[in-house]
Structures are given as structure tokens and as C-alpha cells.
Amino acid sequence: MKKADIAEFFRRLEAGNPDPRGELEYINPFTLLVAVVLSAQATDAGVNKATGPLFAVADTPQKMLALGEARLRDYIRTIGLFNTKAKNIIALSRVLIDEHDSAVPRDRAALEKLPGVGRKTANVVLNIAFGEPTIAVDTHIFRVGNRTGLAPGKTPLAVEQKLEKVVPERYKLHAHHWLILHGRYVCKARKPDCPACIVGDLCAYKAKTL
């Protein structure tokens, strides 16, 4: 996609949704981190159902540790991989208390050292909790980046690095929200809703739906 088309692509996404928000519900940086860890291979709606009651009783690392792994599992058992996720959340709560004065670090390397936290999770937390212009490539962004020709790449990291290069600076803060929402509701996996797409004329996808 040409530079001018990329700028127009994001200009339209911004015009359609000037202040995009992630759909995970959270109270503070810690609950955001927990929600994002839980969201791996799960829907945001499914995570939100579980975290409403959970965050009412455990919204800090200390309270999560006091809750304990067994009781945490009871809150999140409707979410895929809940055993592993419960173990990681208790472990990361302990690390936050022991090594970060109970605060979520504003540092990618420190975040990625936490149990259950990878690059994508770190990018989401940096972006939403701390306003860093990071781009977290999930399945939706990976698809949109490749399908449209905006940022083709064979791996999520390749797509992320391409987006870092091509997204105009003024759009970087919200770029990952716009792309996720576009992939979730318009540029869907099985059948993209091309007639409803506001950037369809800029998109390189050959098998557009009519």
C-alpha cells in the first residue's frame, strides 16, 4: 500500500471512531494486565463475564495472592486454559509484589519477564495503561495487515515491525485499536463485510465480497 493510501486509511478509521477503546474491562493497570493474560485464545466478552466478579474481590496483586490459585480458578473456569492462566496470574502477582513494589512496570522487558506475559500482552498494557504508541498484533491485526496489503508479514512480529514503519506518527497511539475493531467487526475472518468497509477502495484484497 502506498504511503498516501496508508495515511488516508487511518484518517478514515479515525474519522469513523475518533477515540477508540479496547473492549476488555479493567479498573487499574494490574486488572488490565490480568484481563489481557486471560484473553489469550478467548473472547473479550467471555473474559469480561469472569473478571467482573473477580475484580470485585481482587484488584491488586496482594488481594490476588490472598485469593489463591484454587479460588482464582473458580472465577475463571469458563475461560480457556484457565488452569495455566490461574497459575501464571498468581505467579505474576508475586513477582509484582517482590520486584516492582506491587506496581505494573512501564517497561517492555520487565513486563515480558512476568509469567504468562508475551510481547503482545506487554504491548497492550503499555498502550492502554501508559499511553505508549505500541501496536499489539493479534489474530485480527495479523489478518488485516496481510489481507489489505497494509503490512504484510509471515509472523505477528513481522507485521508489527512493518506497522511500526508505515503507520504515520499521529495515528500510532490508536492504530492497534482501530485495526482490531476493523478486523473484529468488518474485515472478519470467514467473510469480510466489504460493502460496509470505509477503506475498501484502498485495500488490495482480491476476493472482495459484494
* Cα separation of the termini: 22 Å
CATH class of the largest domain: Mainly Alpha
CA radius of gyration is 18 Å
Q: Number of helical runs?
A: 11
Features:
2 domains, Endonuclease III, domain 1, mainly alpha, about 210 residues
Please sum up the structure shown.
With 210 residues, this protein is mainly alpha-helical. The chain contains eleven helices and no strands.
List the helices and strands and how they pair.
Layout: H1 3-16, H2 29-38, H3 44-57, H4 61-67, H5 69-76, H6 82-100, H7 108-112, H8 119-130, H9 139-148, H10 156-166, H11 172-185
Helix pairs in contact: 2-8, 4-6, 5-6, 9-10, 9-11
What can you see in these coordinates?
The protein is mostly helical. The chain has 2 domains: about 5-20 and about 135-200, Helix-hairpin-Helix base-excision DNA repair enzymes (C-terminal) (Endonuclease Iii, domain 2); about 30-130, Hypothetical protein, domain 2 (Endonuclease III, domain 1, Orthogonal Bundle), CATH 1.10.340.30. It has 11 helices and no strands. α2 (about 30-40) runs antiparallel to α8 (about 120-130), α5 packs across α6 and α9 (about 140-150) crosses α10 (about 155-165). The longest helix has 19 residues, at about 80-100. The radius of gyration is 18 Å and the shape is elongated. The two termini are about 20 Å apart.
